[in-house]
Fold these 2 entries.
Entry 1:
Amino acid sequence: MVRTATVTDKLKQIKIFPQRLLQPETAEKLLNELDQVKGVVRMLISGKNLPRKITCGPGTGKDVNHPDRIIIHVSGCAFELHVIVGEVLVEVEDESAVEELRKACERALPFPFEIKRGYFIKSKPTLTDFGKYGFKSRTDETINLEDERILGLVDPHAKVDTNICMVKAEENP
């Protein structure tokens, strides 16, 4: 999930690490609580993969009907969970949002969690980004992105970028 703000090195990144893997309903509740915190720029969920098909063994190619692979709604966007949520990475504009993030986690999670500060989501293009998105020109080392906020939010091995939910911040009149 991405808000309308530019990605810079000044933004703070927070890792929310629950002591348990999240059920889809809990993940949806947590993401909606985090979305209400003022100053959140972008969020990234990660965890154990939920494949669509069996990739090896006697059932290769058969569908996997995992009950946790459902569609959740966050901030008006609907998307299918492709992972069992194990951690949430959040990028905020300033340090003042961290305490609000903690309160949002306490409201949404009925069990303990850890919050860590650091740099977890990349903010500058890597070689993979150059290969995935292409160059503007041979001399210019910037990549041809419509929106630089998707850096670090896309799986470099994914064939399509369908699991990004762009949310526009409300503009004040």
Entry 2:
Amino acid sequence: MHIEHIAMYVSDLEAAKDFFAVYFNAKSNDGYYNKTTGFRSYFLSFDDGSRLEIMSSPMMDYSKKALTRTGYAHIAFSLGSKEAVDFLTEKLKNDGYDVISGPRTTGDGYYESCIIGIEGNQIEITV
């Protein structure tokens, strides 16, 4: 068994698609649009075959996102080396994204950083 994909709602599909393409090398499908409901989505594929569906709908709730809310907390990307974690963290910081922790070795031995990415969503960058 494996997770087939993870999905997240975003208000700006194109900006979210570009974010994941630029920083995490995501490849997008051509997208989907339901004329009846106004629902739109893209499936983003990553180098290892994992997929993220980004979605938008006219009926979304735009409530503020607390970092410690219930439900899914973050998405984590493994980059393969400490140097890659350091490089991408610095790039995201220089591009205006908030780094909320790291890069650092956590108490349980992970080397990681966490940033607030597109539309206030937490992203973990790890080895």
